[in-house]
Specification:
By secondary structure, this protein is an alpha+beta fold. It has 21 helices and 36 strands. It has a 5-stranded mixed beta sheet with strand order 1-29-28-27-26. Strands 2, 3, 30, 31 and 32 form a 5-stranded antiparallel beta sheet that branches. Strands 4, 5, 6, 7 and 8 form a 5-stranded antiparallel beta sheet that branches. The radius of gyration is 39 Å and the shape is elongated.
Length: about 900
């Protein structure tokens, strides 16, 4: 497709094979625009843990994307492809807190005598302001420290971590009689603090940091702040909800000088963000004073960039750029602004970065950016612009002086991902002005992209050859999922550029600069760079960018060896494996024949356990002599909605032989004796069997009144606990007892899971005869046969109790379906989907006066069971009861599913 030059200029540079009309390539007028490390010039100025304290290790957790990818098992209802797709939409989820790497940790302030003050956050939680002084000495710097040989510290300690610092320099003559050379502002998550930096002119004494005051923001989080370069001491603060606050340190009252003041006076600007529509609902992150005006501020959020003019106490708004107007960003649909900075010679231009693009814009032109680049940097949170004259200083050649004076370099980087790229731009070369390209007249642009972007190695320990890059990526992939590769590499966490002309070094052929960088290990280093026509050579750098498999640069690692005894407890899961592979009965039979089955108990405890279990079985309607019960009796005593699987489990417990039941229930004395016989020291804890009638599973039980530590000093109760054996094991043992080892084939083929499934099917068939069935329940087939004997009185014909069979649903769509109970008759999930519950009897609803706990029977169609139904309520308690009853009635009338549920009961002969 042949596009016009005007159309080509609308697309980002770097996304097309053909060059953009806004890009000038292979022009010797620019001079060298590649910056390489000068070999053997890396110098460690100072090293201390105070320069970069180790971060706090994160709490052990599994990120949501990782959980979705790993929590899917073969029989999970969520497909692997679905969970992976959802995890991808959640984006990058770091195990570490990468937000501490979003901003530059170093801030510089130059003194009139040539010294450089370097500020940084220090302290265990980065809650202190620290600084050192760099003094030019020969070809490098000398570091000045305090009298103890440590970094200088501010007196004030903040209650939160310092997020970012802002330094503002002014001339000493700007304020008469003041020895201040600048100001420093620090912001935490919810506060801002101001300092004054003072020196004694003509003296070599260390600078002093004077605390001026602080402002606490209780109702919002501080998003950004900046200094006004035109009015000394004036600054503006941006909150996360888009509010702007203007402060001037010379307006602070004296009491504020002593500490934090939440009532510090400041001017609150009130821009009408609502007039701009949905742009204001995004995350605010940046504010900047324009260089050509003291009352114009650039404010940015993730979807748009605005111009706020508060001249004459008014807030006029203008949308400079929105993410929707960017052609490439609108195509991918997920782009957002992440960084903004000032650039250019006249104060009208600014640069901004999205997750994919770098944009050069003019505040006077709101039609779109002047130049767009595809920066290719992952998570770019660092953005700064420099004059090429600063980056190519101390040059011995004057051939490219025009380009150095007129050109600019933009650094786009990510401290967390150890990436930094340089983008150069400027006006059209003078040699080509007489024959400008057609693109200049059509696009109306006065700036062009100079050459291709280049990579700058900030750490100086990288090799960019293909072999080293591949080995580095392979090393990252080999790390465990819960370890970030940043833990294994020494990263740069802050830097700034120093003019090389201030050092007594020999001029370079094309000039260069000196980089002062702060490493994650706490080293403050100086590194020289020089402009070059060629890419850096890989000689002598191979292997320096590999990952350290043993160290950890992010978090502290103890040097001492582990001194405590290592004790490991191994749990045996062989019986669980037997159950999952459906060979439980076979293996229990083989162990029984070998005499390894634990069936011995103390004789004095057998009689008491036997008597206890007989009482439980009789209370549940089970014949102790035969261990049988009518199917209809399985639905008695359902005080709560119960799944058919729970009903089948209770019935299975009641059909077990007595000697097997005696194995399943015990007391702590017997458990201790078993552990002693098998030399086991593992602590086991079980819940006591409740006093109410019924068999397992028990819905609610009281916790044991003992610690979880086994000790002879702890007095154990005499309560019976259990079950101490799972139901599948008891069913398999019961099958072995019944067949007396004579029918080995039947035992081998016996499956407890199949037995419970058949029990559920039988109970579902019987429920049709004895229960009121939901009108939409097509699961209960017409041809089902009742297992209740014809001579036996059916439970549903009695006036004592009735039951209701239904399928609980949580979705309105399911409730509106006509056949919400329809499912395959061989679906195993119906054991858990079908629920049966007992309804109050006719005489409970007969209008008699209710007392005690019986008054709650009138509130719910389900029969409520309490531990005790005795006791009356006084007048005040009845008053509150009637009030709650009226509120409950209002809810019944307004909740359609519940009203339909009661209507079905009335139609089936129930009461609600």
């Amino acid at each position: 497709m042949n596009l016009s030059e005007g159309w080509k200029s609308l697309f980002p540079i770097g996304l097309s094979i053909s060059p953009s009309p806004l890009q000038i390539l292979h022009s010797e007028s620019f001079g060298p625009l590649l910056f390489n490390i000068v070999p053997n010039t890396s110098t460690t100025l100072f090293s201390s843990p105070a320069l970069c304290p180790p971060a706090h290790p994160p709490l052990p957790s599994l990120s949501l994307p990782r959980f979705l990818q790993t929590a899917v098992f073969p029989y999970s209802p969520v497909l692997q492809s679905t969970s992976t797709a959802v995890a991808v939409t959640l984006g990058t989820n770091h195990h570490c807190d990468s937000s501490v790497f979003d901003h530059n940790r170093l801030e510089k302030l130059c003194c009139p005598d040539g010294r450089v003050i370097v500020f940084f956050a220090t302290g265990k939680d980065l809650d202190h302001v620290g600084f050192v002084v760099l003094v030019p000495e020969n070809e490098s710097f000398r570091v000045e420290l305090d009298v103890a040989g440590k970094v200088f510290l501010s007196v004030n300690k903040f209650d939160r971590r310092i997020v970012r610092m802002y330094a503002c320099q002014h001339d000493c003559d700007a304020i008469c009689g003041c020895d201040s050379i600048g100001f420093l502002m620090c912001r935490t998550m919810c506060s801002v603090h101001w300092f004054s930096v003072k020196i004694k002119v003509g003296s070599e004494e260390a600078p002093a940091l004077e605390y001026l005051g602080g402002k606490l923001f209780k109702c919002s989080v501080v998003a950004d702040a900046c200094w006004n370069l035109h009015i000394p001491g004036e600054s503006i603060v941006l909150s996360e909800n888009g509010e702007l606050f203007l402060f001037n340190i010379y307006d602070f009252p004296p009491p504020v000088f002593h500490g934090l003041n939440e009532k510090l006076g400041g001017k609150r600007l009130r821009p009408c963000w609502d007039e701009l529509g949905g742009y204001t609902k995004n995350q605010w992150f940046s504010c900047l004073f324009c260089e050509n005006s003291h009352s114009i501020v650039i404010v940015a959020n993730s979807s748009a960039i605005f111009l706020v003019d508060f001249t004459n106490n008014k807030c006029e708004l203008k949308c400079l750029l929105s993410i929707e107007k960017l052609t490439y960003s609108s195509v991918i649909g997920t782009d957002r602004f992440v960084a903004v900075s000032l650039t250019g010679p006249d104060g009208h231009h600014f640069i901004c970065a999205t997750e994919h693009l770098l944009l050069l814009c003019d505040i006077q032109i709101s039609s779109g950016p002047l130049i767009q680049w595809n920066h290719g940097v992952l998570e770019p949170h660092y953005l700064a612009s420099y004059n090429l004259s600063d980056m190519r200083s101390n040059s011995s050649s004057v051939d490219h002086e025009w380009a150095s004076e007129e050109g600019f370099g933009i650094l786009v980087g990510s401290f967390w991902n150890d990436e930094c790229s340089l983008f150069c731009y400027g006006p059209h070369p003078p040699s080509d002005v007489q024959s400008p390209s057609s693109a200049e007249s059509k696009s109306g642009s006065s700036f062009y992209a100079w050459e291709l972007p280049s990579h700058i190695s900030l750490s100086g320990h990288e090799c960019c050859c293909g072999t080293c890059l591949l080995r580095s990526e392979f090393a990252k992939d080999n790390l465990p999922e819960w370890i970030e590769w940043q833990q294994k590499r020494e990263l740069v966490v802050g830097f700034f550029i120093v003019d090389s002309s201030c050092l007594s070094s020999k001029p370079d052929d094309h000039g260069g600069f000196t980089l002062i960088r702060l490493m994650l290990s706490g080293k403050l280093e100086a590194q020289r760079y020089q402009a070059s026509w060629d890419m850096p050579k890989a000689d002598g750098l191979h292997g320096d960018n590999y990952l350290d498999p043993t160290g950890s640069y992010l978090y502290p690692v103890g040097d001492e060896e582990y001194k405590f005894p290592r004790k490991f407890k191994y749990l045996k899961f062989k019986y669980l494996d037997f159950y999952l592979t459906d060979v439980l009965s076979k293996n229990l039979l083989e162990e029984h024949e070998e005499g390894n089955s634990c069936t011995t108990q103390r004789e004095n405890s057998r009689a008491s356990i036997h008597e206890f279990l007989c009482e439980k079985l009789k209370a549940s309607g089970i014949d102790v002599s035969t261990s049988t019960a009518a199917v209809a009796d399985s639905f008695r005593g359902l005080g709560m909605p119960t799944s058919m699987y729970e009903v089948a489990s209770r019935r299975a417990w009641g059909t077990l032989p007595m000697d097997v039941l005696e194995l399943a229930f015990s007391n702590y004395a017997d458990i201790l004796s078993v552990l002693a016989n098998y030399h086991q020291k593992t602590s086991l804890d079980f819940l006591a069997v409740p006093d109410q009638a019924g068999l397992p599973p028990f819905l609610l039980r009281n916790p044991p009144q003992r610690s979880n530590k086994w000790s002879n000093k702890v007095k154990r109760g005499d309560d019976y606990v259990g079950p101490v054996l799972p139901l599948p094991v008891c069913l398999a043992l019961g099958q072995i007892r019944r067949h007396r080892l004579s029918y080995r084939e039947n035992i081998y083929n016996y499956s407890p899971n199949v037995e419970l499934t058949l029990q559920c099917d039988a109970l579902i068939d019987a429920a049709k005869e004895v229960a009121i069935v939901d009108s939409g329940c097509d699961l209960i087939k017409k041809s089902s046969i009742s297992l209740v004997d014809d001579e036996e009185e059916t439970w549903g014909s009695s006036q004592d109790s009735r039951a209701f069979l239904y399928k609980p649903t949580a979705s309105f769509d399911e409730l509106s379906m006509e056949n919400n109970m329809e499912m395959c008759p061989f679906d195993e999930d119906r054991r858990f989907k079908l629920t049966i519950t007992e309804l109050p009897s006719e005489r409970d609803k007969g209008g008699k006066s209710l007392s005690g706990m019986e008054i709650f029977d009138d509130l719910c169609p389900v029969k409520l069971s309490f531990n005790t139904r005795e006791g009356d309520f006084d007048d005040d308690e009845l008053k509150w009861y009637h009030l709650l009853k009226r509120q409950f009635s209002k809810w019944e009338d307004g909740y359609t599913p519940y009203r339909d549920f009661c209507l079905q009961l009335n139609q089936k002969g129930g009461h609600c």
